[in-house]
């Protein structure tokens, strides 16, 4: 006679089922990352883009599958509290020798929050705090290299080490001139290390074992250590016109690395058995970059969300300032607020929009999803999307609470929390805070700083041209919808009107019939389709300021020409995929060699 299932047996079976769901997810995630090597070798750039988009969807699909399984096999949502608590305890035990324990904990949270009521969202039932350490996790199969390789160069012939280091990645594609590239890398880095260079006893190069693939590039990422000196390095590998490989440049500063791993760029594909070890290594190169952003940059955006939320809760415990309506011009679609001491903004879709905004809540969410899946080319901010965000009510300014109740009442409610009242936001987007471009320009103009105005306008135009190359039309091009980063880059962050360039019709303003009746206020004398764009009309909205106008017409007058936009549209339709580099093109070895040959000539 079989014994009825016990409380412990059911809890253990559920814990195992949840871990099996995660392991399946990470297996598929890793297979996609490994395949990036072949796509890079055969120049399958469109396939690389599709794989990035598909990979984003893996997580939610596996969470959904696991949730359905738990309901079908165990009716988990109706289990007693004691069993639910025991599931987490037993799950922790299953992670003792796991190589991705922090990711598995996050997966547990994702499944649990699909099943449980909000009242269970605390550490007894989900992982509000990590339970398993990720320190010193090692590969236990003994096969292949560890997280990173170490090389001990012989100076001054250390270009030989760079050549061997590149060969060790075993790419199935020949280098155009490996010796030349290795000499270029060694030459640049010898200048960075200083002249005369004195190798110390610990002189070494550490390089992560996996290549970082994104768009049309593969990146070697590591660091040089010499005495007390540490230099971050990244070597972009690109295809040449002859279909061979070449090192394009050397990135060697923390700012270089911050830009390469920017939240405004697409996620990397990299094969990692132990993600936490990669994150730990990368943080030595970018100590100011939050762990959450590094996880996201590696394609582990759910872990990035989890890490970010823990950072937010920690910050709230150790600060006393209050959430406020964000400075700047109020948006008609989004209510934006921030916490002055925390470098992020919170965006909530308003309940109603003015008549000129012909859109819906679902369409706006679709635009943000488009950006998540799209190549952001360093010009569109990544967003963290959250549901059921609970924040202490006492930390909100009264003016903000009034604004939330008047324009976002459908998305908020006030609950009694465990210790104090909470304001629960049903759906929110969270982005890095930037200085709005309109405020930056106003301040620079008021100070008479023509150079700063010109730099910002140049960057704005460059941002638009990068977005065009990525097949993105911003829709609302006003300065207020762009921001300035710490590195001075202009980034777009208001997505409710974006369209694909290829879906737009770029038109000249037709000549007016002088015999026709005068159009009424706010009307035009020609028909306008829903996807029609008239670049000649941008000027009155953008160029009211004399300094701004002068800089814009000097550097980016082509943006007012419909033919410029249409020409780029046709290039995209023809299948062109331009190079957009996360570094100044003047740093490219190929351009430096060309300039040198022209001087000699």
Q: Your description of this structure?
A:
With 601 residues, the protein is an alpha+beta fold. Helix content is 42%, strand content 15%. It contains 18 helices and 19 strands. It has helices at 7-41, 45-74, 81-94, 101-115, 159-167, 178-193, 254-260, 275-285, 291-297, 301-317, 361-373, 398-407, 437-446, 450-469, 538-542, 546-556, 562-573, 589-600; strands at residues 148-151, 204-208, 212-214, 217-226, 229-239, 245-247, 324-325, 334-338, 344-349, 384-392, 412-416, 421-432, 435-436, 472-473, 482-484, 490-492, 499-500, 505-506, 532-533. Helix 2 (45-74) crosses helix 4 (101-115) and helix 9 runs antiparallel to helix 10 (301-317). The radius of gyration is 27 Å and the shape is globular. The protein starts with 6 loop residues before the first helix and ends with a helix. The mean pLDDT is 91.
State the end-to-end CA separation. Answer: 94 Å
Helical region count? 18
Number of strands: 19
How would a crystallographer describe the biggest sheet? 6 strands, antiparallel
- Compute the average pLDDT: 91
What would you call the shape? Answer: globular
Q: What's the alpha carbon Rg, rounded to whole Å?
A: 27 Å
From the helix content, strand content and strand pairing, which structural class follows? alpha+beta
- Helix-residue proportion: 40-55%
pLDDT below 50 for ≥5 consecutive residues: which ranges?
none
Work out the strand percent. 15-25%
């Amino acid at each position: 006679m079989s014994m009825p299932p016990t409380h412990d047996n059911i809890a253990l079976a559920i814990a195992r089922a949840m871990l099996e769901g995660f392991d399946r997810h990470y297996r598929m995630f890793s297979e996609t990352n490994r395949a990036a090597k072949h796509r890079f070798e055969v120049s399958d750039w469109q396939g690389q883009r599709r794989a990035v988009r598909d990979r984003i969807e893996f997580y939610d699909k596996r969470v959904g599958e696991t949730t359905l399984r738990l309901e079908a096999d165990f009716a988990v949502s109706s289990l007693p509290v004691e069993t639910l608590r025991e599931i987490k305890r037993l799950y922790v035990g299953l992670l003792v020798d796991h190589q991705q324990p922090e990711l598995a904990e996050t997966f547990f949270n994702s499944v649990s929050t699909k099943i449980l009521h909000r009242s269970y969202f605390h550490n007894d039932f989900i992982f509000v705090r990590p339970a398993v350490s990720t320190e010193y996790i090692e590969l236990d199969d003994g096969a292949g290299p560890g997280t990173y390789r170490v090389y001990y160069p012989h100076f001054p012939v250390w270009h030989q080490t760079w050549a061997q280091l590149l060969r060790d990645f075993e790419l199935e594609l020949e280098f155009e001139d490996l010796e030349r590239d290795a000499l270029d890398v060694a030459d640049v880095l010898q200048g960075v290390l200083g002249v005369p260079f004195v190798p110390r006893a610990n002189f070494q190069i550490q390089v992560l074992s996996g290549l970082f693939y994104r768009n049309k590039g593969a990146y070697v990422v590591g660091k040089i250590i010499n005495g007390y000196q540490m230099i971050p390095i990244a070597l972009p590998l690109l295809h040449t016109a002859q279909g061979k490989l070449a090192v394009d440049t050397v990135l060697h500063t923390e700012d270089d690395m911050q830009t390469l791993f920017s939240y405004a760029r697409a996620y990397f594909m990299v094969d990692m058995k132990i993600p936490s070890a990669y994150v730990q290594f990368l943080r030595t190169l970018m100590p100011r970059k939050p762990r959450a952003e590094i996880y996201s940059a590696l394609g582990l955006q759910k872990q990035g969300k989890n890490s970010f939320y823990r950072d937010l809760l920690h910050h709230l415990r150790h600060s006393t300032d209050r959430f406020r309506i964000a400075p700047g011009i109020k948006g008609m679609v989004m209510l934006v607020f921030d916490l002055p001491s925390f470098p992020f903004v919170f965006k909530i879709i308003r309940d109603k929009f003015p008549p000129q905004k012909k859109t819906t809540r679902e369409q706006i969410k679709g635009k943000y999803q488009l950006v998540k899946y799209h190549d952001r080319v360093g010009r569109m901010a990544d967003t963290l999307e959250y549901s059921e965000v609970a924040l202490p009510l006492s930390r909100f300014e009264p003016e903000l609470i009034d604004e939330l109740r008047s324009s976002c009442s459908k998305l908020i409610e006030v609950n009694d929390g465990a210790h104090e009242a909470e304001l629960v936001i049903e759906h929110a987007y969270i982005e890095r805070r930037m200085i709005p471009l309109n405020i930056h320009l106003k301040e620079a103009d008021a100070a008479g700083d023509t150079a700063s105005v010109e730099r910002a306008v140049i960057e704005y135009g460059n941002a638009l041209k990068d977005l065009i190359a990525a097949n993105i039309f911003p829709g609302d091009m006003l300065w207020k919808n762009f921001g300035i980063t710490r590195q001075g880059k202009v980034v777009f962050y208001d997505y409710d009107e974006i369209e694909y360039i290829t879906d737009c019709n770029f038109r000249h303003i037709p000549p007016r019939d002088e015999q026709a009746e005068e159009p009424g206020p706010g009307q035009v004398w020609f028909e306008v389709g829903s996807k029609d764009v008239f670049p000649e009309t941008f000027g009155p909205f953008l160029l009211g300021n004399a300094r701004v106008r002068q800089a814009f017409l000097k550097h980016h007058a082509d943006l007012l020409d419909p033919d410029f936009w249409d020409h780029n549209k046709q290039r995209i339709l023809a299948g062109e995929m331009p190079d957009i580099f996360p570094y100044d093109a003047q740093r490219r070895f190929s351009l430096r060699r060309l300039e040198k040959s022209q001087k000699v000539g």
